[in-house]
Specification:
This protein has 100 residues and is mostly helical. 71% of the residues lie in helices and 0% in strands. Mediates both low-affinity uptake and efflux of sugar across the plasma membrane.
Length: 100
């Protein structure tokens, strides 16, 4: 019989790996943006929503809010950093009229 804590940790690690691939999935889009030096018709909305989502999950995972949630903080902190890089690239290559 598998201990419940071990099963929870294994499921959490599997979820973190899947989430990491989800956070990395826009890489081809940002490679295209970097090569063309413009964002074309892409929108920043999904990346802004993901930043907000990750920030809220990081807050939820703080030890004073929810103890023993290291897996929640690690993947969402990583996702937050990745998405902030995406937004920086997006806004760097956005025309001035779209930055407003």
């Amino acid at each position: 019989m598998v201990n419940a804590t071990v099963a929870r940790n294994i499921a959490g690690i599997c979820g973190n790996v899947i989430s990491l691939f989800l956070f990395l999935s826009p890489i081809p889009t940002f490679i295209t943006i970097y090569k063309k030096k413009k964002v074309e018709e892409y929108k920043a909305d999904p990346y802004l929503a993901t930043v907000l989502n990750c920030a809220l999950w990081v807050f939820y995972g703080l030890p004073m809010v929810q103890p023993d949630s290291l897996l929640v903080i690690t993947i969402n902190g990583t996702g937050l950093a990745i998405e902030l890089v995406y937004l920086a690239i997006f806004f760097f290559f956005s025309p001035t009229s779209r930055k407003v």
